[in-house]
Amino acid sequence: MDMAICSHTSLSTSNPYISPRIVNYTANRKSFSFSSSSFKFKKPFFGCTPPLCFSTKASFSLGSRIPLQKSIKCSVSQAETTTDKRAQLTRRNDVRNIAIVAHVDHGKTTLVDAMLKQAKVFRDNQFVQERIMDSNDLERERGITILSKNTSITFNDTKINIIDTPGHSDFGGEVERILNMVEGVLLVVDSVEGPMPQTRFVLKKALEFGHAVIVVVNKIDRPSARPDYVVNSTFELFIELNASDEQCDFQVIYASGIKGKAGLSPENLADDLGPLFESILRCIPGPRIDRDGALQMLATNIEYDEHKGRIAIGRLHAGILCRGMDVRICTSEDECRFGRVRELFVYEKFSRVPAEIVEAGDICAVCGIDDIQIGETIADKSSGKPLPSIQVEEPTVKMAFSINTSPFVGREGKYVTSRNIRDRLYRELERNLAMKVEDGETADTFIVSGRGTLHITILIENMRREGYEFMVGPPKVINKKVNDKLLEPYEISTVEVREEYMGPVVELLGKRRGQMFDMQGVGSEGTVLLKYKIPTRGLLGLRNAILTASRGTAILHTIFDGYGSWAGDITTRDQGSLVAFEDGTSTSYALASSQERGHLFIGPGVDVYKGQVVGIHQRPGDLSLNVCKKKAATNVRSNKEQTVVLDTPLDYSLDDCIEYIQEDELVEVTPKSIRMCKNPKFAKKSGGRS
């Protein structure tokens, strides 16, 4: 593809912004050609206008002069699409709708905390906990954002609606839905790690929507920060994702979210986030609306309140919405029903505030339509038309949910029947568009498909806390057949590991059919960044294996890449399981001899049943043990009682158990316990297992 240069300076290789590698002369075509992979800035650019902007629409001959361009402030905010439909729309300048997107742990929620505090959302003497947007108990325990949340602040008489989004790739469906509500995004990038797999995913989606992007290089106060590399890498990512000229002309802000500081250069940060707020107003355009048109609002998110019922959240695209108004709810041109808006709310500061009227362009919450679903349009009663529905990517992993069939069924759970489980799973679909539920082979089995094991594990943990009791099988990838050729999902895996543990990690990934395509040092901390393309099958159970190989220091990130040819057989576990021989209560006497066979999951005094997995065998193949054996009580006192020393049992979490189990094993999930057991439907296996 021919690409043109628009530059404020001459195109000599002495230009301090341009690397000599950037210009490749193509003699036969007599035009400039560029390679995005070789593109590097020698000096970082600050502010809205980098020294180069790219165009894919024209090419210049070698002898022609390139006209000088007039300097602009933010080309993204001034870019207009002149179509007949958009010509009727007007720009609303008193509102900005933005989403904050980033890779996991790059500091989105911490940055939102600082924005809320500096916008005087809270009183000076008010106690505010850290990561206030992570209000869910599960989010606080795991330290990640799972559900997207809305808030708003006011800066210079302009209302800024802010949506905090999840950073983990398994919750990418949340990000895809939220991008329907905004006109721009803050792309938060770590000042050391740079663009990571989820950064690529969320940026790709934002560019597809045509949104303006402000790049925030966060954690700039880290000792090993490398802002020049991060900005250059981010720019290359824009080029790689076919961003438009206007989108490539992005604003760069350097910030420290935890200190609440931001600036246009890493060496000169302001005392507050003022430069960030000003950039949002300048570079993120206001919403395009049809103020006098028929009412249209797309339900992008659903919440539930015990008193108000279902609450639909979305952006008003056209018209005016009033409390008490009769509306039409549309799914397609032919499927419509009627309803009434009982209550109406807008987001002000950190809460929902009742409103009588909401104008187009603002984000609001609607109560009173009990059967509203995500993707449906709230439209004018007489002449309303539906908006395009929300599209999300297909799931890649599935797991089987079934009723609990262990001898301990009903001891701890409140909801144990297949009807209870079925109702809860189908209720999850109302809010979680990236998940799918299908009936299994039997009436008490359900197949749940999601973006990854974490996506489904969060659902399992939520159901467990709600009082459900059930069993789940091992995760399996969803394969496809195209032209009689078997295809399986592949993912881009990024491993951050210290140099001394790199060898075992590379060997482990190689065994799982991973192919390395990049390796680079990260900062001055002696850390290496490995990038692999690996089948999703190879990732099942990989996280614990990598932590073991690296002594708990490695960090693994993955993102779905696409479908590729079948990679062949993959061995995920070399060791078998230790299985309880009979029902009963474990004893110290029995465990003392059992622990010589491997690592145990249980201690003394624990109720077990026949077929329960009680440990990891040190060799391939399963081994049945009697962990309930008691010492014979005879009247012979020849020897003094010996002190039994037991090893500390392994404490496996829900995620660990799901990673551990094989095809013939199940995880029993109850509100108080998590156990593993052999699947009674499988015949006994002899010898080793793969």
TrEMBL record:
Source organism superkingdom: Eukaryota
Pfam families for the chain: BipA_C, EFG_C, GTP_EFTU, GTP_EFTU_D2
GO cellular component: cytosol; ribonucleoprotein complex
Every Tr-type G domain range: 93-288
BP-aspect Gene Ontology terms: gene expression; response to cold; ribosome biogenesis
SMART domains: EFG_C
CDD domains noted in UniProt: BipA_III (cd16263), BipA_TypA_C (cd03710), BipA_TypA_II (cd03691), TypA_BipA (cd01891)
Molecular function per GO: GTP binding; GTPase activity
Annotated PANTHER family: TR-TYPE G DOMAIN-CONTAINING PROTEIN, TRANSLATION ELONGATION FACTOR-RELATED
Protein name: Elongation factor TypA-like SVR3, chloroplastic isoform X2
Protein source organism: Coffea arabica
